Amino acid sequence: MAQTLLEQLREMTVVVADTGDIQAIEQFKPRDATTNPSLITAAAQMPQYQGIVDETLQTAKADAGPDANTQEIVNLAFKRLAVAFGRKILEIIPGRVSTEVDARLSYDTEGTIATARDLISQYESVGISRERILIKIASTWEGIKAAEILEKEGIHCNLTLLFGLHQAIACAEAGVTLISPFVGRILDWYKKETGKDAYEPAEDPGVLSVAEIYNYYKKFGYTTEVMGASFRNTDELTELAGCDLLTISPKLLAQLDAVTAQLPRKLSPELAQDLTIQKISVDQETFEKMHGANRMASEKLAEGIQGFTKALESLESLLAERLSQLEGNEVVSHAAEDIFRAYDLDGDGFITREEWMGADAVFDALDLDHDGKITPEEMGSGLGAAFRLVKV
């Protein structure tokens, strides 16, 4: 019987589920899972996960003490909620879960280190080994330096919002466990910059970027894993067959699983050895020079941090609303409207993929009519669909 593209891809690449939907994970049991601020924010608004939110808030209220105000309780619950979801996920999957550091600390090395240690401490306090956790950190110079220190403590890191070779090299030299280069967002930038509607699969700028990073790592023997992320179509995935890991949206997984065709391996350590590649040593001065010269990487990194920050701010508002409800106050929730206003950057009444800047899987689920835009109505009605998952 002929294999599907997804079946063949899994033979050469680890496929990772990018979801916070615990029910879906229970059903399909992927090896690894990753969460981010927009996934947690959306999940926290779904009725089936209200128990996790409520328990986290109530425990935070008790631990904060009788004199704590609402903001103090919300701050404590906020720090614990991602771990609460992560713990539930780890009860189901055999591998690792990624838990993200507050994006507002992206340029704060010491703050990132302190938060990562706190996250690991929370997991270890309930018997979960740090070997099963990846701490997600934005690939700023400050974030990479934090990861370098954390890795030496046995705290493994997933460096995200990665768009350029300079970021990847700095991560590898810092001994980072895993990086998540964003394929689709690179394509988005080039399409907007050049006015081109489409690229041939082998010429896709995001594909070329990840292939360059993968080949550089394998050529020079770095052990840092490459996990391609943020895909726009299945062609990008098939062009990166053989990459260490790929994290793929439910929609694209379904498309891969529906096609039976030969899938040749495009990336491998053996192929990389035959390439002529110049080795570059990246210190802070080199990093900043290369980052400044790469307008795409500079803009997309800043946008990504901004997007995750917006999601976190929405989550804080949501927790404050729910705490007030638990205390017996009548509250009209405006969470969906608040999220919409935060992401509708130009105020034109809909959110494009570029404006969203959160998780691509969430955007795809909220874009109910698949026209590339999220309306207020879709935002209000689509949150419950944001975590559908197919088997991986």
Automatic annotation (TrEMBL):
UniProt KW Transferase keyword: yes
EC numbers for this chain: 2.2.1.2
Active site: K136
Catalytic activity: D-sedoheptulose 7-phosphate + D-glyceraldehyde 3-phosphate = D-erythrose 4-phosphate + beta-D-fructose 6-phosphate
Domain EF-hand: 331-366
Keywords associated with the record: Cytoplasm, Pentose shunt, Schiff base, Transferase
Role, per record: Transaldolase is important for the balance of metabolites in the pentose-phosphate pathway.
Name of the molecule in the record: Transaldolase
Gene giving rise to this polypeptide: tal
